[in-house]
């Protein structure tokens, strides 16, 4: 019996990697499995929220009872997030969005040739940073996967992107971050507070994160 503490709220959640094609066969991507973002979507759904899940390519089944939007590239994810942002009370960006994409997509398949070739990359827009500038009353939650000086780097992202909360994964720890069924996170708040969660399966971790987020939602502080 879960609390229905998210009734009446719209949660917009992103998950998984993005794929940035450089020809019609090959892509630039990350090791994100989507498990963390899907767990947040499920947990929010089970607590009564109306959930939209925007997912990059993963091997996971879309959870029932959520509006599911499949995207491939960072630019497609940006377009989909922006389309749903207006209705959202809470945005949770668990996706590992590629910071760069190949400057051009070659038609067909690049043939094997010289020993060394160069792939030119251009910056993708930062979805969260752009939305941070027009957040209004929304609660904005980012994730940060870091190796070394995890808290400092995550706090810099929290400030740069105008977030309410950032969930920092230390990817050097066993059982944390990309691909695993568990996560070990430090949660940083805009007001300087910091909460360390133990190693938890990703669904339990998602519930603990929502417990912390819910108190930041205007009108729900007392829960
Ligand atoms: O998918 P799993 O295998 O379960 O793994 C979970 C995870 C490790 C992918 C996830 O928990 C996580 O940490 N996601 C963020 C990965 C990351 O390093 O993000 P970042 O530091 O590049 O970006 C910080 C924040 O800005 C993120 O919320 C990201 O979604 C967002 N961002 C990043 C780049 C970009 N161009 N646009 C963005 O909105």
Could you explain how this protein is built, in words?
The structure is a single chain. With 223 residues, this protein is an alpha/beta fold. The protein has a single domain, classed as CoaB-like (Rossmann fold, 3-Layer(aba) Sandwich), CATH 3.40.50. Helix content is 24%, strand content 25%. A hairpin with a 5-residue loop joins strand 2 and strand 3. The radius of gyration is 18 Å and the shape is globular. The structure holds ligand PMT. Ligand PMT binds next to helix 1, helix 3 and strand 9. Keywords: Decarboxylase, Flavoprotein, FMN, Ligase, Lyase, Magnesium, Metal-binding, Multifunctional enzyme. It catalyses: N-[(R)-4-phosphopantothenoyl]-L-cysteine + H(+) = (R)-4'-phosphopantetheine + CO2; (R)-4'-phosphopantothenate + L-cysteine + CTP = N-[(R)-4-phosphopantothenoyl]-L-cysteine + CMP + diphosphate + H(+). In the N-terminal section; belongs to the HFCD (homo-oligomeric flavin containing Cys decarboxylase) superfamily. In the C-terminal section; belongs to the PPC synthetase family.
């Amino acid at each position: 019996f879960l609390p229905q503490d998210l009734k009446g709220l719209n949660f917009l959640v992103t998950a998984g990697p993005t794929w940035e094609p450089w020809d019609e066969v090959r892509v630039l991507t990350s090791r994100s499995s989507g498990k963390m973002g899907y767990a947040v979507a499920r947990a929010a759904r089970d607590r009564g929220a109306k959930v939209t899940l925007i997912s990059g390519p993963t091997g996971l089944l879309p959870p029932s009872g959520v509006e599911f939007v499949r995207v491939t590239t960072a630019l497609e994810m940006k377009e989909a997030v922006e389309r749903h942002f207006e209705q959202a009370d809470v945005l949770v960006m668990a996706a590992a969005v590629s910071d760069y994409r190949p400057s051009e997509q070659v038609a067909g398949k690049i043939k094997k040739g010289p020993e060394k070739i160069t792939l030119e990359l251009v910056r993708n827009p930062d979805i969260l940073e752009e939305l941070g500038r027009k957040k209004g009353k929304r609660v904005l939650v980012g994730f940060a996967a870091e190796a070394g000086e995890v808290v400092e780097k995550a706090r810099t992202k929290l400030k740069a992107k105008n977030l309410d909360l950032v969930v920092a994964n230390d990817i050097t720890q066993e059982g944390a971050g990309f691909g695993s069924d568990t996560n070990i996170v430090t949660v940083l708040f805009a007001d300087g507070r910091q909460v360390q969660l133990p190693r938890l399966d990703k669904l339990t971790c998602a519930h603990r994160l929502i417990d912390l987020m819910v108190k930041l939602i205007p009108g729900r502080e007392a829960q």
